[in-house]
Amino acid sequence: MRFVIQRVTHASVAIDGEVRGEIGRGLLVLVGIGQEDNEKTADKMVQKLVNMRIFEDLDGRTNLGLKDVEGELMLISQFTLYADCRKGNRPSFTAAGAPDLAEQLYEYIKGRCAEQITAVRYGEFGADMKVELLNDGPFTVILDSADLGC
Predict the structure, then answer these.
(1) Are the C-beta atoms of residues 30 and 99 closer than 8 Å to each other?
(2) Which residues are catalytic?
(3) Residues whose CB falls within 8 Å of the CB of residue 52, separated by 6 or more in sequence, listed in order
């Protein structure tokens, strides 16, 4: 499982020209599901995400988490995070989770995040989405379950 976590001042997602979700200060997270992922993996990733301290405190240090700043969260499913570009010029996506598994885990992640964060917005699995954001910093972190021993 891979999360690309971006600290934002605001973000939105539109589908078919209609804005489906908007957040203010918080995190925009691109979520990639791999073939070997499961709910246990998702639980570890969500815990790491919601407790990650990447917001500045009064001294300008990145000491505060999403809950501390009453931040908002936007989750966007993105299978292309599993692109394999080692051979040729066309990426392969064979390491991405099958659509039924990926959708089930994406829904699970949404639910687990909503249990801990007050404002959670999200895109639609499999939809052609237009995502807009203003990256604050810029501050972007890549979280990979393989690095967490999942």
Answers:
(1) no
(2) 78-80
(3) 5, 65, 66, 141, 143
